[in-house]
Amino acid sequence: MLANFGLPSALNRIIALGVSTERARKVLSTALLSTALLGGLLVPLMFAAADWLGRVAFSAMAAPAEVAGVLRLSSLLLLLEALDSLVMAALRGAGRERTIALSDLLLRSAHALAVGSAVLFDRSAEALLGVMLLTAGARAALRLVLARQALGIVGCRWPTICFRELAALFEFGRWQWLKQSGAALYGVADRLLFGGLFGSVQLAHYSLCVQLAQIVFIVPAALLQPSLGRIARATEAGTRLPRLGKQMMLMQLAVLGIALLVLAAGPWVLLLLMGASDIDGRMLALAVLASTLMALQVAPNFILLGAGENRRVGLIAFFGSGASLLLCWAVHPLGPLAFMAARCLQGVVALGNYPTLRVTLATLTGAAASR
Q1: Could you give the CA distance from residue 7 to residue 82 in angstroms, rounded to a whole number?
Q2: Distance (Å, rounded) from C-alpha 222 to C-alpha 244?
Q3: 36, 82 in Cβ contact below 8 A?
Q4: Are 197 and 332 in contact (CB under 8 A)?
Q5: I need a labelling partner for 226 at 20 to 30 A (CA). Which of 45, 54, 306, 319 fits?
C-alpha cells in the first residue's frame, strides 16, 4: 500500500480532467517508472529486515524462517500490485470501466484457478505467493496494453520520467500516500500487532470478524471508485453539485442497511467457519461498528478528493489511524474486545471531514452560480 506513493489517485484525476495523448503518455510513463524505482528501494529493505522481523515481531505466529520467506515474497508481490494499481487508475481516468470489468473477470478467474491449484498440490505459503507473483505480473502487463490502447498511446517507446509531470503527480499524490499510510496502519498493522500480542488462534477470529465487517466499507468504495473522475470534472466545472449531495445521502443510508445485514448474517458465517465454541458476537458487532464509521466517510472523501481537498483528507486519515493503533496497543491488557473497540477511534476522528465538506460544497455552488 505504501509502494505506490499515492500516485494512482493523482494519475486518475489528471487523465479524467482531459489531457492530450502526448501528456497521457508522459504522465503514465512517469508514474510507472518512478513507482518501479522508488518501490524497488523498499524491496531490498524488506529482504534485509525479514529475518529480524521473523525473530522479534512474529515469533508467536510461525517459525521465524517461514515468516521471513513470506515477507520477502510479499514485498515483491506488493510492488507488482502497486504497478497494476497505476494502470487501473489510468483506465478509470479514461472512463474504461467496461474494459476494467471484463479484464478483471478474465484475470481474476485465472488467478483463482492458479492459486487453487497451488493450494491443492503444495500447501506451503511460498508456493502460494510464487503463483500470485506470476499472476500479478501477467495482470499488470496485460492491463498496461489495454491502458495504452485506451489512451491512444502507440509504439513501444521506452518509459521515461518527466520531472514536471512527476511534480504534478506528487503534488496531489503525497497526501493520498499519507491517507494510504493511515489505511495500512488501520487495516494491516493492527492485525500484525494483534497476532503478536494474542497469537494465531485469536488472530484468526479477529481477522474473520474484520473481513466480514469490511463488506460495509468495500461496497460503497467499489461503487464510488469509478466516479472519482466524474466527481473531479463536476467540481472543476461547478456543475451537478446538488446531485452529488443527494447521492451522498443515499449512499449513507445504504451503508447503514449493509451494516444491519452483516450484523444479521455474520454470526452464521462465523459458525460455519469456526464452530459454535469460538463465536463471539461482541467481537463482530464492534468490528461492524468500526467499519460503519469508516464507510460513512467514503462518499464525503470522494467528493473532497474530486474537489482537490486531498491534503485535509490525508492528514485526518493518517492521524486517526495512528491514534487508533496507539489506543489498541494501550488497551490490549484488557483483552481482544478492548483492542477491537479501539479501532472505532479512526472513524470518530474522520468525522472531522464533514465541516470541510459543507464548506467545500457551499464554495463550489457559489462559484458555479457566479459563472
Answers
A1: 9
A2: 17
A3: no
A4: yes
A5: 319
Which residues are within 8 A (CB) of 63 and not within 5 positions of it... i.e. 6 or more apart? Answer: 54
Assign 3-class secondary structure to 220-276: HHHHHHHHHHHHHHHHHHCCCHHHHHHHHHHHHHHHHHHHHHHHHHHHHHHHHHHCH
Chunked mean pLDDT (size 10), the chain, 371 residues: 73 78 83 82 81 70 72 82 84 78 79 74 73 82 82 71 82 75 73 81 83 82 66 58 68 86 83 65 87 84 72 80 87 89 86 78 60 55
Q: Which of these, 164, 175, 169, 225, lies nearest to 32 by C-alpha position?
A: 169
Tell me the C-alpha to C-alpha distance, in Å, between residue 295 and each of 6, 154, 173, 349.
Answer: 20, 40, 22, 13
Contact residues for 109 (Cβ-Cβ < 8 A; gap 6+)? none
pLDDT for the residue numbered 57: 66
Cβ(87)–Cβ(137) under 8 Å?
no
- The whole-angstrom separation of Cα 320 and Cα 312 is 12
Identity (one letter) of the amino acid at 47? F
Buried b (16+ CB within 10 A) or exposed e, 144-182: bebbbebbebeeeeeeeebeebbebbbebbbbbbbbbbb
Report CA Rg, the chain: 21
Region for residue 88 given its phi and psi (left: phi exceeds 0; alpha: psi -120 to 50; beta: otherwise): alpha
Global pTM reads 0.60
Which residue shows C-alpha cell 496502519? 185
Residue 146's contacts (CB-CB under 8 Å, 6 or more residues apart) are 87, 91, 96, 99, 103
- Return d(Cα 22, Cα 25) in angstroms, integer: 5
Q: In this predicted structure, what is the pLDDT of residue 23? A: 82
